[in-house]
Amino acid sequence: MGKIAETAEKSFIEGYSCSQSVFSAFAEAEGMDLDLALSISTSFGAGMARIGDTCGAITGGMMVLGLKFPRLTANDTEAKEKNYRLVHEFVEEFNKRFEKTDCRDLLGFEPGAPEASERFENEPELEKRCAGFVREASEIIEKILIREAF
Fold it and tell me: Residue 89 burial (CB < 10 Å; 0-12/13-18/19+)?
């Protein structure tokens, strides 16, 4: 496991959301202020604010790819296409590993349901499972970034 993936997993275990953990680990390594990175990624945990849609580890990774491969002008279609290609690669690899991409499907229940917080408190394997999503998503992103640097 790479250093950034370790940092992301540790952040999740400390209590940050999956999205915050992935994005902030990479953003801080890129020199972004940690508070800014945590702020930007706040709303994306638990499948986008506990909605249960796309896993926060994925949305955090997508933000990393936007940070590293941005489209900064409206007519830069080449940058847009490169970013989208890398995002698709990332999501496809995550899906290969876990066969799902939505938080509710990965967890097996709605993260916004009233009993969800209680389940996380009483079922330690849930935290381990989500920490694995954070770690794996970060490792996939690390591999893409290393490959694209050359």
Answer: middle
**Cα-only R_g, the chain:** 15
Query: pLDDT tens digit string along 63-120?
Result: 999 999 999 999 999 999 999 999 999 999 999 999 999 999 999 999 999 999 899 8
Q: Can you say whether residue 55 is alpha, beta or left, with left for phi > 0 and alpha for psi between -120 and 50 degrees?
A: beta
Q: Judging by beta carbons within 10 Å of its beta carbon (0-12, 13-18, 19+), is residue 41 exposed, middle or buried?
A: buried
